[in-house]
């Protein structure tokens, strides 16, 4: 049969048929129930506005996800990564911390934490422009928004995370594991993070103690002189990670290892798997001396060196706050003396 014959056989009714079929397909594409995401809808509307293709095959392409970049599954995560993007420095670094109701009460950790930047040396207040605070409950979120620009409400957590979580309680353990998930999300977006516990006081810029050599940089409770030695006692109250594929795999492995050590926090699991991590992934880890990232477990307290101070090895929120206040006064005294001299 020649092409001419086919052309002749096409009746107007046949044309209407095709038009109706195409219109129906387009309708299904744009208003299909799986386009819950408004962004998705927008994209499809935009494609629709360009006009349908000429064949049903092209129409089907509009329906498939081939043309649309893959959509992240959880919209909570969308909001989180959007905030990370906004808060990041030019070189894609962000600072991350977590807070709950107890730690965000007036004159509690959140206030002390933010204040420490203003009392810092080397003008570290600008680092606050790159800090994302993850609030673990509504009260902490409200408080955060009243004192800081980048606050993210984490809503996916099962346990009640608003109280001062007893060390190693279920709520406490859930809390520490959500942070590892957020770390992974940040790296997957191509950003590096410096995670800091909310009770770490910042005196100077801690980035000065992170080398480009290491994949992961971790604070210590006790430091024995060699930054690469796993026998240093790690403390995940401050962690820095480069945005590499290797580190993403490492965090996945770390999170999965939780199942092997149930009812254990992320720091203890890290301690259990650190040799596995170095050998499996050829992971380069740098442990930071307590001279620079200080604490009460191995107090050095030489203010000419100290960048941060973490009241670990002290139990109880009240006690920590009291000690931090003493420390802050000492630091201010040091600063005023060193300014005069
Ligand atoms: C549809 O067909 C017309 C005429 O054959 C052609 O010029 C046009 O490029 C086609 N459009 C698409 C989207 O393929
Ligand atoms: C994401 O952010 C928008 C705008 O800030 C907000 O309206 C929406 O509820 C957030 N969605 C989720 C799932 O957190
Ligand atoms: C500290 O940084 C802020 C913001 O970047 C700037 O406005 C201020 O002038 C700086 N202060 C000093 C003493 O460098
Ligand atoms: C503190 O550190 C500085 C700089 O390294 C050093 O010169 C000084 O001796 C130290 N002070 C004490 C008391 O160890």
UniProtKB/TrEMBL annotation:
Keyword Membrane in annotation: yes
Q: Which UniProt keywords apply?
A: Cell wall biogenesis/degradation, Glycosyltransferase, Golgi apparatus, Membrane, Signal-anchor, Transferase, Transmembrane, Transmembrane helix
Q: Name one GO molecular function term.
A: glycosyltransferase activity
Q: Where is it mostly found?
A: Golgi
Topology with regard to the membrane?
Single-pass type II membrane protein
What sequence ranges are listed for the domain Nucleotide-diphospho-sugar transferase? 126-322
UniProt-listed Enzyme Commission number(s): 2.4.2.-
A GO BP term here is:
cell wall organization
Any one annotated GO CC term? Golgi membrane
The UniProt record lists the keyword Transmembrane: yes
In its UniProt entry, the species of origin is given as Rhynchospora pubera
Protein name as catalogued? Glycosyltransferase
Its family?
Belongs to the glycosyltransferase 77 family.
**What are the TM regions of this chain, as residue ranges?**
12-33
